[in-house]
Amino acid sequence: MSSPRVAIVVMAHNPYQYISEFLVHHGNIADCIYVIDHRSDKPLSAIYIENVIFIESNQVGQFQSEVTNAVIRDYKIYENNDWLFVLDIDEFLPFKSKNELHQFIEKYKNAQTVSFNWLNGVGVYPTAELENENDTTSLIDVTPLFISNKPNPNIKVCVNCNKLKYPFYFRTGAHEVVKPYRFLSLFLRKNYYKSIKNHKDSHFIYHIVSFDRKSFYKKIKNYVYQMGLRKHVKGQGGWMVETYLKDFDDKAWLEVIQNFRVSDKEKIVYGVDQNMFIKKDIFDHLDIKKILGIKRKINTLANKKMSESSIDESNYIKNKKYDNDVKRNASLFHVCKTNSVAEIQIRKI
């Protein structure tokens, strides 16, 4: 019996504090990683890493759901793999080896989807200036990380491609997977999608919300900017992050990390303190030389010039109405290969 094939899709923007660790950690357990590079300063697609495919997404807007679903569709990931994980660059699956992952897959071989709760953490805590900090500093340089021992209610969902047949779609953030209804009744005309019920168990995924406080503010500012590009779009969540754009002392910042993007007051953890966090080295099983090797490759890359928003992108933003209409939205994006570089393009409307 052949081993199950596992694919990971991740979208990232200037991910230098995370990406080397992410690729080595997940390269140990997955068969292929698809990295969607959203307007990073450096051309990540110029480097070669075994079993990693880079796709450039040079739109000004970060169309995470559209681009992710277009990559899954155009590369036929659902057809060539048994399981599919859609992650963010700051998320790390809790498996240290393929054997651990395959045990998980065997356990849930009859499930369509399985959910993982966030275990949130940070790289640098308490707030301090790092000695010799520079553009090449990453998570491995501040390990062990400061990680909560209390799960966050937000989840990530993975798909068993053998049980959930395509077409299926990931909504923004991969917190939910849906399928379009084949036939619409009068009662369903306002809801074209069926949410897939997840198999819920005590699974978690390490979510390193921020490298440090400085990068946290930078991350939130980018969130708010991106949401501002689509203020008119219905169904777009995450507006609560605007409240994070203020100065926190260390204790208040820990509360934000623990309760990151929790809007349900009944699920907020109160009285957060350092005792709820532990110092943990989640990379102790990795070959540090591989991590440093990828960092060196990235550091040799020159910065690239970025184009302005195209007419096609402007038209798409203007005409986009519903963030949750994932099938239609993704249909307007496609992967195009030009000069050996895979790039996301938007179709004319």
Your description of this structure?
With 349 residues, the protein is α/β, with parallel strands linked by helices. The protein has one domain. It is built from nine helices and 15 strands. It has helices spanning 19-27, 64-74, 77-80, 98-107, 213-228, 250-258, 288-299, 311-319, 326-331; strands at residues 6-12, 32-38, 52-57, 83-88, 91-92, 113-122, 145-148, 152-160, 169-170, 177-180, 193-195, 204-210, 277-280, 333-338, 341-346. Strands 1, 2, 3, 4, 5, 6, 7, 8, 12, 13, 14 and 15 form a twelve-stranded mixed sheet that branches. A three-stranded antiparallel sheet has the order 9-10-11. A hairpin with a 6-residue loop joins strand 9 (169-170) and strand 10. Helix 1 (19-27) crosses helix 7 (288-299). The model has no long low-confidence stretch (mean pLDDT 92).
Instruction: Please state the CA-atom Rg, rounded to the nearest Å.
Output: 20 Å
What level of helicity do the residues show? Answer: 10-25%
Order of helices and strands: EHEEHHEEHEEEEEEEHHEHHHEE
**How far is it from the N-terminal to the C-terminal residue, by CA?**
47 Å
Low-confidence stretches: none
Mean pLDDT: 92
How many beta-strand elements? 15
Q: What's the story with the biggest beta sheet?
A: 12 strands, mixed
Strand content: 15-25%
Number of domains: 1
| Coarse morphology | globular
Query: How many DSSP helices?
Result: 9
Supply the helix-strand structural class. Answer: alpha/beta
